[in-house]
Amino acid sequence: MTTADAAPQPPHIRAARSGLHLVAALPALVALPVALITSVLCRAARRLAILWVLYFVQGLPFGFQATALPVYLREAGVSLTGIGLVTALALVIAAVFAQLVRLPASLVVLVSPARAAVDAARRAGAAAALRG
User: Fold this and answer.
1) In the chain, how long is the greatest CA-to-CA distance?
2) How many Å apart are CA 73 and CA 94, to the nearest integer?
3) pLDDT cut 90: percent of the chain above it
4) Taking a C-beta distance cutoff of 8 angstroms, is the pair 51, 37 a contact?
């Protein structure tokens, strides 16, 4: 294997092997952290892009029912009263779904006193068993 066939060495390795002073290798040593920072930024940008796509897709159903659906219904010959009822129904369904999503967090207020009493009784029983 000749030197022409060997893989090229990074500049800081070449500088160290050739005996050059560290100052000569400084640009190469600075390039490594810059590459790491851009790699982290690329990961952050990728995550941000995924978040943006998910946020956009989340809004598509509302955008469709608020803008495109009334146009399609009107072209299909549905009366304005019918379009208004369909839009109102969609908004009611969205509101009910939003409340169902929040329901577990709302129930915590009702369940927590009972859970605290059960935990206190369990701790008292365990303490009595330890005292023996």
Assistant:
1) 86
2) 20
3) 5
4) no
> Please, is 128 exposed, middle or buried when counting C-beta atoms within 10 Å of its C-beta (0-12, 13-18, 19+)?
exposed
For residues 8 and 127, give the distance between their C-alpha atoms in angstroms, rounded to a whole number. 70
Q: What residue has token string 């790491």?
A: 36
| Cα gap 111→114, rounded to integer Å | 6
Write down the residue that tokens 């930024």 correspond to: 41
Judging by beta carbons within 10 Å of its beta carbon (0-12, 13-18, 19+), is residue 71 exposed, middle or buried? exposed
Ranges of each domain in the chain: 1-78, 92-132
Which two structure tokens, joined as six digits, stand for 11?
Answer: 């500049």
- Tokens 């908004």: give the residue: 91
DSSP readout, 26-69?
Answer: HHHHHHHHHHHHHHHHHHHHHHHHHHHHHHHHHHHHHHIIIIIH
pLDDT 10s digits, 33-67: 666 666 666 777 778 888 888 888 777 777 777 78
DSSP 8-state class, residue 9: P
Question: What are 82's two structure tokens?
Answer: 């019918």
